[in-house]
Write a structure and sequence with these properties.
The protein has 137 residues and is mainly α. The chain has six helices and two strands, in the order ααββαααα. It is elongated and about 70 Å long. The relative contact order is 0.08.
Length: 137
């Protein structure tokens, strides 16, 4: 791994796990300070930029929306923040995940029920397709 700084967008992508497109999107959202450019016009990312992008990547891995990531980056970079602010944002995310998981589990139960009604044989009748078409079995 090269230790020379600054790095170009390809190297920043490699080091952070984000694509070049995602990095440019982060820039457009103001998650990074204005990025310097080389004489040839190429973006040049500092250690701090790459660290911020690593933070963004990890937050996205945890399922935070870009709006939530913006809020988290803002809190992370604000020395006067309180951990209560961070915890509340994360609690809201956890609650949302719980609701989405419950909806997915309900969908799974519905599909399993439909599958139980389907004989899965060589006949054309299919209660799964009937249900999708609004014709309950």
């Amino acid at each position: 791994m090269s230790s020379t700084w600054p790095v170009n967008i390809g190297e920043a992508a490699r080091r952070t796990g984000l694509s070049a497109k995602q990095i440019r999107h982060c820039e457009s959202l103001g998650l990074l300070a204005p990025v310097n450019r080389s004489d040839a016009g190429y973006r040049q990312y500092t250690r701090s930029d790459v660290h911020t992008l690593q933070f963004v990547h990890r937050a996205r891995e945890l399922g935070f929306s870009m709006a939530e990531v913006q809020a988290l980056v803002g809190l992370w970079q604000r020395p006067g923040r309180t951990s209560a602010e961070v915890r509340q944002l994360v609690q809201t995310h956890v609650d949302d995940l719980g609701e989405r998981i419950a909806r997915m589990q309900a969908l799974q139960r519905s599909l399993l029920s439909l599958m139980a009604c389907c004989r899965g044989n060589e006949q054309p009748e299919c209660p799964i397709l009937d249900d999708l078409a609004g014709q309950r079995p």
